[in-house]
Amino acid sequence: MNIADFEDLLDRLGEDISGWPVPQQQAAAELLQSSAEARTALAQGRLLRRALSAPPVRAEAGLVERIMQAVHQAGADPAAAGPLARETTTSVTSPPQTSSDENTDDTSKDASRLPRGAAGGER
Fold it and tell me: In terms of pLDDT, which residue wins out, 24 or 115?
């Protein structure tokens, strides 16, 4: 087994090698004895598993309310709320402009590419 195969198995089967098929367990054990890179990959896999198993980080009480209050206080003056609020306000209040040519329904071209009878109307 090479390091690429080992990392692939780590990604697919997880860092608990005892759950791997026996031939892969044996090959992984041999690789781990001889390869510092494999040992590092296994350690990183275990670290990732612990991080994903940890309880979620929670925001302090009232944080969402304070953010929303700051956004509402900025109201008509997005500059007062900072760059993120300006960006959000701009994208919400200024929908993209389209020309009347872009809004036309050109289904006849699309229907010509469909198999016979798939465009509807033909039965």
Answer: 24
